[in-house]
Every structure is written in structure tokens, then in C-alpha cells.
Amino acid sequence: MKVLSIIAEYNPFHYGHLYHLNEAKKSVNPDITVCILASNFLQRGEPSIVDKWSRTKMALHAGIDLVIELPVAFSCRSAFYYATGAVTSLVKSGVVTHLSFGTEANNLLQLQKIAQVINNEDALYKSVLHDFLGAGFSYPKARILTLEKVLDLKNDDLRELDNPNNILALAYLQVLDILKNDITPVGILRKGDYHSLDPNHGFASASAIRKLIKNNDPNWKNHVPSFTREILENDFKDGKGPLFLDNLEQNIIAIIRRTNPLELQKIIEINEGLENRIYQSAQKHSSIKELLTELKTKRYTYTKIQRSLTHIYLNYEKSLDLKEPKYLRILGFNSKGQSLLKHMKSSSELPLINRFSNAFKIVDSTGKKILDLEARASDLYSLALPNPNQRYGKQDYYNSPIKYLI
């Protein structure tokens, strides 16, 4: 049985996602397709425009058979940890045969070679990387410069390596290499620029569509399938979205202002004095935009800072030490997905969770930490929704998997 998997945020699901899904199915001809879907806070450190349940509906409408959650413990992390959570979930499900992802160039073999070099981290690689980091470059940029030097690659070979799609593709390949799993990677060439809205240059990106929505530009409706449009319009009408990082800014800044820098240092991914800079900046500024502008440096990208601010909001501490998933939470399925779930009951190395209220009884102590963080993230996400009547807590406990059984 061929089981195709896709790791996604679908924030929101658009024509580019549909193209990728259809091309992946053409390439693999799978019996069943599974999606690992990011939770309510995403890899760039932003809240999703609508919650994970609405995005699950989009995935099922698009032709995904089974949707599994990527907990916020991994969905709001840098690329490698994001990939670790997602790929480990796929591997431990015991059923996945293929993993498809978007790339910016037809360079899968090149990316696999680079992934192996990074994983091996010989003395030369470590030394060169250390030098570039010491020169003040961000980690992604320092890694590109290191690979260029160590592998004697030309700029053309690495020109797209700092693109979000290739960064994630590389991370997926790293984790597959580390786990020594035989899941087959399937790269699908992306159409269009990452931030483009020009239909002549491919599909509009999710970030560009979100920008249109944020600016109240109805043109966003032209860039998504009808089912996405309907789901978003219903959520917006009910005040369940749209949600942006700006909606959290007063809460985030309030938390920073009342927190000692030594406490901020306990938050994951905050180190090297960043806690002091964040604390001092929050005393002077009252908007996320101002914080990001002041805190961004050659070493710290906007995305890195955004994640740090969101981690503060979620109180995601280093001491949690969450390195890999400990359960597979089901967000939704159709008839095919339901049949696969029956098979996974015996094949999966991780417990399957359908109801959040029962989850704490069947996971280990680390799993309980992941669940606690997930519940807190959902509660804080809902607190910022436009409609006060939608801001109730315990939403993870009230929502069950979405079933599209025909």
C-alpha cells in the first residue's frame, strides 16, 4: 500500500497547495494521502489566520484522507525542530511510504547531499560555521556560506537555499537521514515567487493572501479554491478570524514588561543576551512592528524574533526539553483515512489520540508536557479572536476529529 504524506500549515489552503497535492498524487499514485498539519502557532512565529480545525476542513476538502496534528511544541520552532516533529510522526505511524514537499529548483539529489554533510558535521564544517556565526551572520546565512566553502559550490548552486521551501525541504531530508528511514522523498517544483500575487508568475503565496486579507482587500478570494473561501468567510463572519501577530501585541508586550530578563532567558531559543534586548525594547515600544524593527540584526532575523515573542506569550520554557512527538493526535479523516487508522492501531509506535480529554491517560510524562503546552496555546489563541463570544478556553477538549465520511 502506498501512503503519501505532506507536511503543511495551509495558512490558508490556496491554489499552489492544490497544485502541489495533485502533482504529488500524480507522481506517487497513492492509495491514501496523509497530512501532518501545524497547530495554531506556526513556524514563522505567527498565529494561524484561522484555527487548526478550519484548516483541517480545507485539507479534507482538497483530497487529504487523514489529518494528524503537529503540536505547537514543534510547529512553532525553527525548521529543523519543525521537521523533526513532523517527520518523526510520519515514521512512527508505521504506514507512510512517501513524503512530498515543495522545492524551488529541481535539486533533490543536491539537497540530499547537503543534508548528509550537515548531519555529519565534520571538524571543517563546524570550524567554518563557527567563524561565520562569530562574524555576526544569522544561522541560516552562516550555514549557506559554510556549505558554499566546504562543498566548493557556486552561488548558483545555493541561490535558493535560504528560501523557506528549500529550508524546510532540507530539514525534512536531514531528519530522514538521521532516522535512517526508507520513506521516499518526492520533491515538487514550486510555481511562483514566495511572496508573489502576480498570476503570470505562478500561484499567489499564503503570505501574500494573508496580506490581502489583513488589508481588507476582497481580491484574496480570487487566489483560493471555493472551499477555502467558504470556510474563511464563515469563520470571519463568526469572529473566529482572521488572526495576526498584531492581535497579540498588547498581551505579549505586557508579559515582557512584567517579566525579569532572567526569567525571559528560560524561554526556548532565547539566549546570548537576547532576553535583555527584548526586555529593554518592550519598555520603549508598544507595537510588535516596532519591536521587530529594533530587534532585527544581521544575526537575528524577523522570523527568529517573531518566534521568540510567541514563545514568551506561550511560556514555552527550555526546561520542557521537548525533542520529539509522543503521540499522534487525529484532527480529521474521511472513509479512506478511517480505514488507515484501523491499520495504524497496530502499526504505530505512538499512541493515537482522538479525544483530548482521554489523552493524558495514555501518554508518558513528556507527552503530558506536550499536551499541556498545546492546551495552553489553544487557550491563548482563542483569547485573541475578534468575537468575544469565541474566546472561551478548553477548546482542545471540546473539539473532536472532523469526519468526512461518504
Automatic annotation (TrEMBL):
Keyword Cytoplasm applies: yes
GO terms (BP aspect): tRNA modification
Catalytic activity: cytidine(34) in elongator tRNA(Met) + acetate + ATP = N(4)-acetylcytidine(34) in elongator tRNA(Met) + AMP + diphosphate
Chain sites annotated for binding ATP: 7-20, 102, 165, 190
Documented EC number(s): 6.3.4.-
Main localization (coarse): cytoplasm
InterPro entries: Rossmann-like_a/b/a_fold, tRNA(Met)_cyd_acetate_ligase
Pfam families in alphabetical order: HIGH_NTase1
Cellular component, GO annotation: cytoplasm
Swiss-Prot/TrEMBL keywords: ATP-binding, Cytoplasm, Ligase, Nucleotide-binding, RNA-binding, Transferase, tRNA processing, tRNA-binding
Subcellular location, record wording: Cytoplasm
Gene Ontology MF, one: transferase activity
Family affiliation: Belongs to the TmcAL family.
Task performed by this protein: Catalyzes the formation of N(4)-acetylcytidine (ac(4)C) at the wobble position of elongator tRNA(Met), using acetate and ATP as substrates. First activates an acetate ion to form acetyladenylate (Ac-AMP) and then transfers the acetyl group to tRNA to form ac(4)C34.
Name by which UniProt lists this protein: tRNA(Met) cytidine acetate ligase
Organism: Desulfonispora thiosulfatigenes DSM 11270
Taxonomic path: Bacteria, Bacillati, Bacillota, Clostridia, Eubacteriales
